[in-house]
Amino acid sequence: MDSNPASGKPCASENPPTRAETSGSRSAPLPEDREMVEARAQYLALRKEILPESDTQQRQARARHRLYTTVLDGNLTCCKLPSRVSRVLDLGSGIGCWAVDIARQHPEASVTCVDHHPVRLHDAPSNVTFHVADLNRDWPVEPNSLDLIHIRAMSDDVVSWPFILSQALQTLRPGGQLEVSEIRPRFWDFDGQFSVTDALPEGEQMSVELSAKMGVDLDPSANLPMWLDDAGFEKAAQRSEILPVGNWSKDAKLHQRATLYKDLLELSGWEGKSRQLFVSSGWDLPRYTALVNRMKESITQGGVRVYMTAVFTTCRRPADEQ
Ligand SMILES: C[S@@+](CC[C@H](N)C(=O)[O-])C[C@H]1O[C@@H](n2cnc3c(N)ncnc32)[C@H](O)[C@@H]1O
Question: Region (Disordered): which ranges (predicted)?
Answer without folding.
Answer: 1-35
